[in-house]
Amino acid sequence: MANELNVAVSISASNATTLINDAVAYQVAQNMAGKYKEESVQTFTATPIAFRIGSITNVGYVVIKNTAASYNLLVSNGAGGAPVISIPPGGACLFSSATNTLFGAASAGTVDAVISVYEA
Question: How many Å is the Cα radius of gyration of the chain?
């Protein structure tokens, strides 16, 4: 298992009133030419700022945990770009990125988030 990035995601839902009983699991393995992971806690306001990616030159996967109690974290791929992901308070998100330039902003107030970026 050398030079490989493995991602496993599972979700289950059960709600008797709407008859949902579902479970989905995905597993992805991709070649990993890179060797870095950057993890940081960043504070966001309404003004978009770039995610810290350290020495990473080719972003592979990004994991974000919004630790704020009240506001969404809005993720975009440009400083002035429209948000492509909105992470609610306490929510988390995992995605593969086609760009190395990711930005975050708070929907209001300030938002703290734990961000892990894995090099592809």
Answer: 16
pTM over 0.85: no
Tens digits of residue pLDDT in 72-105: 999 998 777 789 999 999 999 999 888 898 999 9
- Contact predicate 113/62, CB 8 Å: no
Say if residues 71 and 50 touch (Cβ distance below 8 Å): no
Task: Give the structural domain span for 42.
Answer: 33-119
Token pair listed for 105? 């902003």
Count up the domains in the chain and report the number: 1
Distance of CA 26 to the CA centre of its chain: 17
pLDDT in tens, 14-37: 776 666 666 677 777 777 777 888
Question: Looking at residue 93, which CATH number applies to its domain?
Answer: 2.60.120.10
